[in-house]
Amino acid sequence: MLNEGMVGINGKTGNNIFRENFSITRLSKKKTGRRVSLAQGLTWNSRSVDNYTDAEINYRQPRQYDSLINQLRQERVPTWFAYAGINYREPLAKKLFLRAGARYEYENLKNDITTLDKQGAVYNTRNNELSSDFSRNSNRYYLSTGLELKLKDLAITPGVRYQYQQFDNKLSF
């Protein structure tokens, strides 16, 4: 026999989500085919995970030793995501339209991992080698334009899009 022992893993996961979206389209009363659409949304998520690991393993090969692990690993991942956008459509001819749009997106994510070792009956000693924090703030901007050609029930819109992204990542141990 190479080793023997017991490993027990128990976990608790929590997830709270709030999601909201809104959009509105306004059609022109003066010019057929002209429209403006606005959209925005917000998502919040507060995911949390607690994993308890209790293990006692007796190794015999390649060398004899005992391993005892009693840890609580807590992971907290609160996240915010928001966006806002506008689209505009202007008729150029009966079946040809100019389309333009802009959109902004924001994201804030934090990932906090804490590992606690058990002292007595309580998990209260932070293990810095197995704990870390990560955070990200991101901003994205989109601009797009295109020509829409309408053929009966089919609309074809070749276009171009410009995208700018900015990420700020921070990692700490």
3D architecture notes:
With about 170 residues, the protein is an all-beta fold. The chain is about 0% helix and about 85% strand. The protein has strands spanning about 5-15, 15-25, 35-60, 65-95, 95-120, 120-125, 130-150, 155, 160-170. Strands 1, 2, 3, 4, 5, 6, 7, 8 and 9 form a 9-stranded antiparallel sheet that branches. A hairpin with a 7-residue loop joins β2 and β3 (about 35-60). The chain is elongated, with a radius of gyration of 27 Å. The model has no long low-confidence stretch (mean pLDDT about 95).
Class computed from helices, strands and strand pairing: mainly beta
Q: How many individual domains? A: 1
Specify the overall morphology: elongated
Termini distance? 39 Å
Low-confidence stretches: none
Classify the helix fraction into a percent range: under 10%
What is this structure, in a nutshell?
The chain has 173 residues and is mainly β. It is built from no helices and 9 strands. Strands 1, 2, 3, 4, 5, 6, 7, 8 and 9 form a 9-stranded antiparallel sheet that branches.
Q: Main traits of this protein?
A:
173 residues, mainly beta, 9-stranded antiparallel beta sheet, elongated
Question: How are the SSEs placed, and which strands pair?
Answer:
Blueprint: E1 3-14, E2 17-27, E3 35-59, E4 65-93, E5 96-119, E6 122-126, E7 132-151, E8 154-156, E9 159-172
Antiparallel strand pairs: 1-3, 2-3, 3-4, 4-5, 5-6, 5-7, 7-8, 7-9
